[in-house]
Amino acid sequence: MPTMIDERRSYVAGDWVDGEEILAVENPADESRVAEIAATPLAEIERAIRQARRCFDSGVWADAPPSERIVAIHAFLDHIEAARAALVATMVAEAGQPTMFAERSQFLGGLAIARATIDLYSSMPHEEYNPVPLDEATRGRVAVSIRRFEPVGVVSAITPYNAALIMALQKIVPALLAGNSVVLRPSPSTPISSLLLGAAAEAAGLPRGVFSVVVEAGAAGAELLTTHPEVDMVSFTGSTGVGARILAQAAPTVKRVALELGGKSAQIYLDDAVTHVAAGAAAVIAGTAGQACVAATRMLVPNERKDEVLEMVSKTYAAMRVGAPTEPGTTIGPVISADARARCERFVALAVDEGAVVVRGGGRPVGFDRGYYFEPTVLDAPDNANPAAREEIFGPVLTVLGYRDIDDAVAIANDSRYGLSAQVYSADPAAGTAIARRLRTGAVNVNTALFSAYAPSGGYKHSGIGRERGTDGIRAFQEVKHLVVGELR
C-alpha cells in the first residue's frame, strides 16, 4: 500500500506549527487510528487570520498582476499532482472512500476542475464597460462607466469530510486567483489530506500569510473564523444546521457568506424512462456510500410501475460490493463514523414506524465486525411525508416514491425544505426539460450530468446561498467596484 502523507502539523502564514492538543484521525473502514495530528492552537488560528489580513492589505498578492497569480497557482497544483500516490492513500484511509473514487473523482477530478478554473478566470474581464443610457452619459460629464472586479479580502474556507480535496480546491483556487488571502479549516474527520495543501503553497512560493491550513478537533477555531472582524468572507460546505449557525455568527460583522448545504434531491422518471432506474439508484451510493449532498435519494416513479422499480433497484443494490476501500472491486465503503451509521439506522427505523417498508438492506452487513458499514438500502415509502423522504440521511439509503401524474411528481419534488439538485429522465428531452424548469433547485440534470469548472453549483431554499464553480463561483470571491470617469471642466 502506498505511503500516506506524513505531515502532522498545521501550516500557518508560512510556518509549520505544532500544538499540544492531539486530534486522532480514525479509519472508518476498520476503526484503527490512522494518525495523530497536532491541533492548531487557537492563538495560531488568530495569527493566521491577522497575517492573512496584513498580507492582503500590503497588496503583495492582491495587487499582483493576475498573470503572476496564475503562474503561482499552476505551481501549487503541480505540487499536489506530484503527490498523487500519497494523497490518494491518505484519502482512502481517513475517509474510507474506495480507491477508485479517491483517485478518479477527488484527485483527478479535483485537479481537472482546478486547472479549468484557471482557464476560466483567465478568460474573464477584470474590468468591463458598464452600459449607460445615452441621455445619462451625455447629460453630465460622464465619459465612461466601468465595473471593476476586486478581491473580497480575507476568506475563511471550511470544508466537509466527504470530498475534502475537491471541496477545498473548489474554494481556495478561485479565491486565490481573485487575489484573496485564505485560511482553510478542513473537517476534523479528514484533515490529513488538506495538510498537503500547505506544503503545496510553500513549494509554489505563495507569499507568507496568503494561505494557511488549520486543524482542530472541536469548533472553537471554526467559530473564530466565522466571527473574527478581520475576516471578510466565509465559504462553507456542510450541513444546513451548521450553515445556519455560521450565518448567525457572521451577521454582527456583516461578512459575505457562501453556503453549500444539505439536500434531499429527487430523481424523476417518466414512464418511458423507467428502465433506467438501476443506473440512477447506483449513482446515489456508489463511491460515496450516499455521503454526497447532491445525492438524489428520492426516486419518483409512476405509481403503476413502482413494484417493478423496487425489484430493479433492489437487484442493483444486492449486486453492489460492500467492502474495504482498498479491495479491488469495492463499490461501497463505510460511512464516516459510528454516529453516521447510527443516523442511518435511526432513520430507517423512523421510516418503518411511519409506514415505509424495507425492501432491501436496512442494517449492518453480515461479516463486518469492524468498520462503520451500512447495507445499501431501498425503502418503499408511502408518501413524501415519511421521515426518509424529508431528511438528509447521508448514507446509502434510497427512498422510492410513487406519483400519479407529472403535476404530482413536480409537487412531490418541490415539497422539501431543500433545493440543491434534481434529475429528470425521459425518452423525450423536451418533456424532461419542461419538467426541469418547474423544479425549485439550483441544478437539474435531464438524462445526463455535468460536473465542470464552467458550470455553477449551489442551492435554493435551505440548501445554500451563492454558487461554486463557473463564473458565478469566481465572482463570489470578488467585490464589484463602479468607476465613473469624466473630464474636469
Please characterize this protein's 3D structure.
This protein has helices spanning 42-58, 66-82, 84-95, 99-123, 134-139, 164-177, 192-204, 220-227, 240-250, 277-285, 306-319, 338-353, 387-390, 406-414, 429-436, 470-475, and strands at 10-12, 15-17, 22-26, 33-38, 127-129, 142-151, 154-158, 181-185, 211-213, 233-237, 256-260, 266-269, 298-302, 357-360, 377-380, 397-403, 418-419, 422-425, 444-446, 460-461, 464-465, 478-486. With 489 residues, the chain is an alpha/beta fold. It has 2 domains: 10-261 and 464-483, Aldehyde Dehydrogenase, Chain A, domain 1 (3-Layer(aba) Sandwich), CATH 3.40.605.10; 266-452, Aldehyde Dehydrogenase, Chain A, domain 2 (3-Layer(aba) Sandwich). α6 links the parallel β7 and β8. It is globular and about 80 Å long. The model has no long low-confidence stretch (mean pLDDT 96). Residues 16-482 form the Aldehyde dehydrogenase domain.
List keywords for this structure.
20% strand, six-stranded mixed sheet, Aldehyde Dehydrogenase, Chain A, domain 2, alpha/beta, Aldehyde Dehydrogenase, Chain A, domain 1, seven-stranded mixed sheet, 489 residues
Describe how the helices and strands are arranged.
Layout lengths: L9 E3 L2 E3 L4 E5 L6 E6 L3 H17 L7 H17 L1 H12 L3 H25 L3 E3 L4 H6 L2 E10 L2 E5 L5 H14 L3 E5 L6 H13 L6 E3 L6 H8 L5 E5 L2 H11 L5 E5 L5 E4 L7 H9 L12 E5 L3 H14 L18 H16 L3 E4 L16 E4 L6 H4 L6 E7 L2 H9 L3 E2 L2 E4 L3 H8 L7 E3 L13 E2 L2 E2 L4 H6 L2 E9 L3
Parallel strand pairs: 7-8, 7-10, 8-9, 10-11, 12-13, 12-18, 13-16, 15-16, 18-19
Antiparallel strand pairs: 1-2, 3-4, 5-6, 6-22, 11-21, 14-15, 17-20
